[in-house]
Amino acid sequence: MQNQNVDNKRALTVRRTGQRDGFIQTIKEIIDYREMIKAFVRRDLRGRYKGSFLGFLWTFLNPLLQLCVYSIVFSTILRAGIDKYYLFLFVALIPWIFFSASVTGGATSIISQKEMVKKIYFPREVLPISVVTTNFVNMLLCFIVIFIVIIISGTPLNPIALLCLIPVWIVEYILALGMAFLTSAVTVYMRDMEHILGIVVMAWQYLTPVLYSYDIIPDKYRFLFNLNPMTHVINAYRTILYYHEVPDLSTLLSALVMGILVLIMGLFVFSKLKKRFAEEL
Amino acid sequence: MESVNRDREEYSVEIENVHKHYRVYKDKGMELKEKLLFRRRNSYTEHKVLRGVTIRIKRGEAVGFVGHNGCGKSTLLKMISRIIYPDSGTITTRGRISGLIELGAGFHPDMTGRENIYTNAAIYGLSKKEIDARLENIIDFSGIRNAIDTPVRTYSSGMYMRLGFAVAINVDAEILLIDEILAVGDGEFQAKCLNELRTFKERGKTIIIVSHALGQIEELCDKSYWIKDGLVRMEGPPKEVHSVYLSDRQENI
Fold first, then answer.
1. What is the pLDDT of residue B45?
2. B135 touching A, CB under 8 A?
3. Regarding predicted confidence, which is higher, A156 or A238?
4. DSSP for A168-232?
5. How far is CA A97 from CA A63, A101, A121, A241, B62, in A?
6. Domain regions of chain A by residue span
7. A28 touches B: beta carbon within 8 Å
8. Does A195 contact chain B (CB < 8 Å)?
9. 3-state secondary structure of A93
10. Which of B62, B11, B95, B119 is nearest to A41 (CA)?
11. Cβ separation of A17 and B91 shorter than 8 Å?
12. pLDDT digits over A157-195, tens only?
């Protein structure tokens, strides 16, 4: 009887399927499941390189090797003529890898957990969130390498500019999350998405000033590049870490606004499609 | 109004006039090419699984769903846990739901039993603090304490089940859904499970079982629902319902 009383006092979560799950309710539920997100991120980070000889080192080796390839091509063959090109590239490449890995990895986040989605209930949003967060943590780890490279290159770090990294990280996370919601949900219904995205992400990279400088974009095309939120994000990283200056507030704000729009759109599409995930998989 | 509300609070699960159909694709193409090229092949027939089911389950009640294969009882269970959604009608649940539908789903073979307890309990929506508080209970209940820090890929299927059950029963759910799982494990562990389910029920929690093992339902449940052709054909004390269900099955053979 004692037990009964205790139970009665506890507020029970009432769920009704007929009624639409509100936006706020979805967010609340995701927060309730934060431990699941943490567990998944931990598992992915640890499991990622399991069985490979160099293990966790690949987190750093992978971008470093990519950096070598691009640096050789662009500073000795194509001659971009940019001072310390390796640094110019590196500070943009690491954030770009986070974004592209989130978009492509996000796409398969639901279909790769097919068995779980079909058998257990949990807010489906957890899956893309976990993938993006894993990649985000990976990027933060790579920033350690970035800082080391900057220090080795002999340029002084600007502490005020460095503080601006935090909002830039947040903006990029929002953007990547929004894209992951979109791609993960659509891929369940259209498996081609996975392959289409490979090309889309590659094209997107070339349409973002990652390998080259924003300054060489012809004026008449600039407005198009400005519609790409990643242009602003990459520019901000470069301003902070390569030019050691505080980035333009307006640049960051427009990236933030676009990021939030993408996130809302992603959440909306996801919430429309998630109800039939278990049946479509 | 007050009293109506209070009456409703008594129910932990309310299934109101629920309809559900599945699309049965003749030849399903998931790729864009297939979707465009073979648009006609993508035609599907609609298979009605449930056609207006209303079931109200009180708190502290244990009920069983029985019926032929494909009668829709598992679909019903999946809808209660919100894995799939009804086409029309509503399902209201009050309190956390734990399912012994797929024990150990989400276990990661390379992680230890202890790590998997955390992940698995997190999948039920528990916070770290809540899991910490239950960890010892879960390990005790599983009875595999000496193997808890080895990776679960080294576990036997029985140990796997034990751990899965131990987590599912200890997440402090108000509603427990069980789909044909009591058929696993050795006799001793089965008895332990049944015992635990009884205690669970005595604490005022709700249990819903889908099973072909009618004996288990009779042993544990207060009420049985026989589902046939997407409708509740009969409800009542398990023994009565089961005898009618069994004789109906005899006739159809």
1. 74
2. no
3. A238
4. HHHHHHHHHHHHHHHHHHHHHH-TTHHHHHHHHHHHHHHTTTTSS-GGGS-HHHHHHHHTSHHHH
5. 8, 6, 32, 17, 52
6. 56-280
7. no
8. no
9. helix
10. B119
11. yes
12. 788 888 989 999 999 999 999 999 999 999 998 888 888
Q: Show the low-confidence residues of chain B (pLDDT under 70).
A: 1-9, 25-43, 101-105, 181-185, 253
Tell me if A263 sits within 8 A of A176, measured CB to CB. Answer: no
Contacts of A262 (CB under 8 A, 6+ apart): A174, A175, A178, A179, A182, A229
d(CA A95, CA A88): 12
Residues 6+ apart with CB under 8 A from B207: B61, B62, B63, B175, B176, B178, B197, B200, B201, B220, B221
Task: Say whether B102 and A275 touch across the interface (CB within 8 A).
Answer: no
> How many Å lie between the alpha carbon of A258 and the closest alpha carbon of chain B?
29
User: Taking the CA of residue B200 as centre, how many other CA atoms within 13 Å lie in the half-sphere pointing to its CB?
Assistant: 25
Check if the beta carbon of residue B200 is closer than 8 Å to that of residue B170: no
Q: A208-238 b/e with 16+ CB inside 10 Å = b? A: bbbbbebeebeeeeeeebbebbbbbbbbbbb
Q: Do A118 and B83 touch (CB under 8 A)?
A: yes
The answer to whether A25 contacts chain B (CB < 8 Å) is no
- Name residues 157-186 of chain B within 8 A of A (Cβ): 174
In chain A, % of residues over pLDDT 70: 91
DSSP B145: G
Q: What is the CA radius of gyration of chain B?
A: 20
- Write out the two tokens for B80: 């209660």
Query: What fold is seen in the domain B2-95+212-252?
Result: Rossmann fold (3.40.50)
Q: B-chain residues within 8 Å CB-CB of A117?
A: 83
Of A18, A43, A275, the CB nearest to B108: A43
Mutual angle of helices A229-241 and A165-189, in 10-degree steps: 150
**A38, A190, B29 from B37: Cα distances, Å:** 43, 14, 10
Q: How far is A167 from chain B (nearest CA, A)?
A: 28
**Which residues fall within 8 angstroms of residue B216, CB to CB, at 6 or more apart?**
B182, B194, B209
- At residue B21, the 3 state secondary structure works out as strand
Residue B77 corresponds to which amino acid?
A: L
- Three-state DSSP class for A118? helix
What pairs with residue B32 in β-bridges? Answer: none
Q: Report the alpha-carbon distance of residue B125 to residue B119 in Å, rounded.
A: 10
Tokens of B248: 């109906």
